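pipeline/complex-builder :: batch 7 item 3
reading input block
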Amino acid sequence: MLYINCPHCGMRSQNEFSYGGDASVKRPELNKELSDQEWDNFVYNRKSLRGKHLEFWQHISGCRQWIKVERDTATHEIFKTFKADEEVA
Amino acid sequence: MTQAFRIENVGLINRDKKLSFKFNGKTYFGYEGDTLASALLANGVHLVGRSFKYHRPRGFFGAGVDEPYAVVQLYRNGETEPNIKATEQELFEGLEAKSVNCWPSVNFDIGAINNFLKIFLPAGFYYKTFMWPKSFWYQIYEPFIRKAAGLGVASTKHDKERYEHKYEYSDLLIAGSGPSGLASAYAAAKNGAKVILAEDKPRFGGTLLTSDVNIGNQSGKDWAEGIIAELKTMPNVVVKNRSQIFGYYDHNMLVMSEKVSDHLPSTKKYHPNKRLWYIRAKEVLISSGSIERPIVFGNNDTPGVMLSSAAKEYLKVYGVLVGRRPLVFTNNDSGYETAIEFKKHGVDPVVLDSRKNPESEIIDEAKNLGINIKNSYVVVAAQGYKKVKSADIASISEDKKQLGKMENILCDCICVSGFWTPTIHLASQSGNKIKFKEEIDAFVPGQSKQNEITLGAANGVFSLEETLKNSFKAGSELSKKITENDIEIAIPNVVEKKSSQHDKFWCVPLPKGKNYKRFLDFQNDVAVSDIEIALREGYRSIEHVKRYTTLGMATDQGKTSNLNGLQLVSEIENKVVPAVGHTTFRPPYTPVSIGAIVGREVGKHSKPTRKSPMHSWHEKNNAVFVDAGVWLRPRYYKRGNENLFEGSKREAKNVRTNVGVCDVTTLGKIDIKGPDAAELLNRVYTNAWLKLPIGKARYGVMLREDGIVMDDGTTTRISENHYHMTTTTAQAANVLSHLEYYLQLVWPELNVNVVSTTEQWAGAAIAGPKSRDLLQKLFPNSDVSNEGLPFMGYIEGDLFGVKARIFRISFSGELAYEVNVESDYGNFMWEKIMEVGEEFNIQPYGTEALSTLRIEMGHVAGSELDGRTIPYDNALEGLVSKKKDFIGKRSLQRSAFTVEDRQRIVGVVPLDKQTSIPEGSHLVKDDKAPLPNPKLGHISASCWSVEYDNPFSLAILKDGKNMIGQKLFAMSPLKNKVIPVEIVSSHYVDPKGERVRS
């Protein structure tokens, strides 16, 4: 079980969180003309990387904040966590 | 029965407390502090079971967690548990156990015929033989294998025992209380670190309980007792016996199973049977010791053949002699230690040492005691069927290939020592890159991945002095990092005997013309010949050899067999062991009760049960409850002998003719506030929200980004910047998360706050033609006329002094209202509604009537919004705005979502107007078509229409738009039903929706 540093609450066990997918994907702006391919890329196509991955988690049984977690998908090492509005360096 | 093999005044058992127990129906006696194994051995019982494949007689091989044979079925306090190791099970008064793997009895086992057929059961036999013909599998092979195999029988009864989970955090977690565990725990504890020390056995001290060593002028055992006693007094230390750390997971989380009650005749009141600890440790010290390796020889599975360390433990801890004519077969000095203990207790052992001319202090001591030692000698085969009676021994050449002339010597047990295998499971599970250490011919931990360090024998260090030095140091240094204390500890001096080099020899060759089975894996009956076959057939990867032969795949997970298997493969393949590699160590290290893993999350505790504030009223009024998500809701209110069908029909009918009231507290409610609230709703819902007036409600549908309907519900504008959203019961939590996702991550610029208020409001739906009259009486000061409170209107009212929210919304399709009050007043509201409603013939209605009412109106619910449908499929495309963008809109343009014959909701009526259609039935064109019959759609929900008094169903049907009037078949192979049906509009009752507006 992962041990995640919630930037709002501190170190908490994984079972307080729920996973929210790839944080590098940005939702297209509203009302923007998009090709099928662009939309598919947003909705479906993910890289499923091995290695460093930026992902969303929600501290669902805690502060309910969505956070960003930089995690290695192969080793589960967590390098850093960020608040939702924090820039990822 | 006398305990003929118990010797006086030896051991750590409590001889003042005699215990009686039964094994295979026969009564025996033992003492408090015994294991089932030691008590049986004290009584001279060596035959405990039959082997898995050949049903050969099996006895005891070890004295603890590594035991491959002595697996029994345990009976305790009216319960039974399989797969219990007799070497771990502590004795209690009245214990009962039986052998497994044998039928009809352990003494006469029909399956043993496999033993004589064994030429037909080599590695891969099952894979090769039971493949063909296919039809034989279910009829013949599988039942046969199932009956013959197995390590006991699981109970089919509900488990009365309680299991607990506990979360703990520590600075240092130390696995194992042998010398390294004690020393490191002591040093860390002195530095003020929070320490957890775990020991799987009942007694602390590990090998110190059995070795002949001195620490600080005390015996090893006394030193260990002193350290443990001191640790127990320290507030920063938790010491736990009977506690096995069985898994090392990510981010330094380890899981430990504590056997709280297994050693007692029954579990004490308020105590759990087992407690599972989830421990998050800053540093982990693995001091799990090592397990003795056997040497492989002919018939080495005969009862009476056991590890020399086990024989020593039975003697020193339990005062039990495993034999009176022991033969010790060793390739290192450990065998001598066992022989010396025998000799000291009046028994004359014979030692066979595969080495030519070993010299050490231990060997000198053995020689001085006059022990008979034969160098360059090996056991070729054990003789005896149910018990060792003698051994064929021979001298062996220096290259270990040639055996000398065979001799037979009488013996009643063979104690075997093939040196030591470090227990590296936890280190390996943590991600440590283990490495092969040539000096000890075994794997040891290498590069750490997590904060873990392995000490002592588990790290391949067998000198006590070195172990203590390293362990005190490690405990000090690791705790110093955390507490910044640095208390100096004087390392006690150690007196131990020095050992000489072990012999690199683990498998005795077969003598000419002999075909003895030489077992590697005793629990799965894997012999040397099986490995040879696997390699001959081309298996090379050790992982493949393992699976083909099942080496190390039994419940003991190869603790005594894996390394000998690797050694053998390396010899045959002419490779060094590290080149062969090793199989993966996976948790759990030992079998863990399913009950312990599940913990308290059983039955109703698997999820919290939620009840509405009106629950006690429902109970008092004969409600029959149903699980709705995590909630308990009344399904119907039983009158007299009514069944569900009759009761729900009565309730639904009463709503259509008079008025009914339904508890809708469970609906998800989300309070939305902020200047951008309308903008959020406009982006989340498919329809337009910017112009909703204050005091008005609107029905809305929300999609996922992939265009699939996520949820529906009404949202009401309470005031300028304040909205009240409702969700379905099931999706309440998901919708809140969904809104938070978009507000926090996608559109943080929106100035809106959302919060769940599901628990804050109690809700009652009042529905039926007389609902307005009732409402007027409930709220005499409010204008609830069709003008004052029109359809989709909202007002606040005063319910006998309680502030209430009144929404004119309808799920039943009737003139209907929903009244909300603060939860604490829920029951008050409900009682007032029932009291005032009496003159209008009010009846409460449950979820079954609720479903009936919505189905015949064609209102969609969870069974249609099933994660596969878009708005069009639910006839909700009218709510999809063409002008604005919203979540999921772009997906609705996908070609599959816009095809002409897209699936769509329809109504379904059986032609005979009698037969109810099972939910889930498939709609097909031709009921006689060959299978697989092409499916056109499925029945999503069924009811008995109270309006027309016949069955009615909703279905999602391909090209539903153009199918009205068509005749199809509803087929349910599960219920064995084929029902001719007609497709009708989903709006079966009041298709124009006049009632809700009346």
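note: Chain B has 24 helices and 50 strands.
queue -> next item
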